[in-house]
Automatic annotation (TrEMBL):
InterPro entries: Aldolase_TIM, DeoC, DeoC/FbaB/LacD_aldolase. GO terms for cellular component: cytoplasm. Pathway: Carbohydrate degradation; 2-deoxy-D-ribose 1-phosphate degradation; D-glyceraldehyde 3-phosphate and acetaldehyde from 2-deoxy-alpha-D-ribose 1-phosphate: step 2/2. Coiled coil: none annotated. GO terms for molecular function: deoxyribose-phosphate aldolase activity. This is Deoxyribose-phosphate aldolase. GO terms for biological process: carbohydrate catabolic process; deoxyribonucleotide catabolic process. It is an enzyme of class 4 (lyase). It catalyses: 2-deoxy-D-ribose 5-phosphate = D-glyceraldehyde 3-phosphate + acetaldehyde. NCBIfam families: deoC. Its EC number is 4.1.2.4. Belongs to the DeoC/FbaB aldolase family. DeoC type 2 subfamily. The lineage of its organism: Bacteria, Bacillati, Actinomycetota, Actinomycetes, Micromonosporales.
Amino acid sequence: MTATTTSRLPDLSGSAFNLRSFLHGLPGVDKVGVEARAAALGTRSVKTSAKAAAIDLAIRMVDLTTLEGADTPGKVRALSAKALRPDPADPTCPPVAAVCVYPAMVPVAAEVLRGTGVHLASVATAFPSGQAPLDVKLADTRDAVAAGADEIDMVISRGAFLAGRYDHVYEEIVAVKEACGSAHLKVILETGELETYDNVRRASWLAMLAGADFIKTSTGKVPVAATLPVTLVMLEAVRDFRARTGRQVGVKPAGGIRTTKDAIKYLVLINETVGDDWLDPDWFRFGASSLLNDLLMQRTKLTTGHYAGPDYFTLD
């Protein structure tokens, strides 16, 4: 845990040294402190009277995701329909924030989602490894936007970041942001590969300085994905960044968030770290697939007094 950074913003028109000096001048993360605070906030309970509102908010924050090699047009159409009407038996259930698919499936999802208000996100830039030349990454991004994506989830080059080539990572994000045009850019840090909380903080600031609209924890394709302590470090980063620059950036934990209890822990974390401004789908998302079904089961329990059962809702 740290106080708001007092480091001067780097002169990004100059050498890579300015960026390196800034990132390594950020206050260090107290590992014990951040893990203890995340654990303490994770034990907070939500009153029954507020639980229904919390569940509906969490549903509205979901980026309903399918990123499998076996994805078919039929699966993507069904997922997109579910995003619009998560519980077909209950028209009061809100839609999710977005559907997230591979670029090849963007045209399919766009047929269902266009004009509905539910966003269409596409992973890009050689997801999940990020190991491709820049021109390939930019073509990937432009193709997804042209096909209908209004949000792009890019992956950073973790190898370049861990090698200290911060200027390379920065320039790639800037170039992808430009290729996005009017589409919002979510920058995936793949925090499970960054090794330390200090690196998570540095990568968060690097992405925001380069123009990210959101910073995202993970691809969901490595063993360690979103965790409360990592998300706490990222929330502190967006809070401090807004305090320094006046620009608000969103946060998206992704991977391993499966239950309503998990989602509510993240909502508490937001409220206690950055406040109400981020308690909105425009500024916080859950990258998930199975989470939505548990939210729907808990919602049904609150409204009817009975669990619907896992087979009541479609499996994603």
